[in-house]
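thought: fold this chain, then report.
action: predict
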Amino acid sequence: MSKLKFHERNPTFSGNLTIDEHNDIRRLLNDNYNLYFQLCIELFDYMEELLNLVQVIFTSLDQSRTNSMTSTGQCRLNPLIACVQDSSLLYDYIVKVLFKLHEGKKWIFKKKENSF
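observation:
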């Protein structure tokens, strides 16, 4: 459900979490650090939901004593593929947004120093 909410709030991201060259994050957010911060929060929330899903999957394996080599075990592990793919891209975007926020922090403090 959180994936659908994320994509509803951020239509720039396609379903597979890619952004084409024309919709680069930097072009879309135009150095608006409030938007970067909001996007960062949403990316962290999405990542947290993915990690919770992974935890539920592994917990279900422990309870049923399922082996990953059986068809039942493989069926239960199958959602982890999408989780790994999504979390990899989310991690990349989170790092980029955090670097941009860090850059903005320097710019904001430099701007404040010059105003005194």
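thought: worth noting. The mean pLDDT is 82.
final: tokens above.
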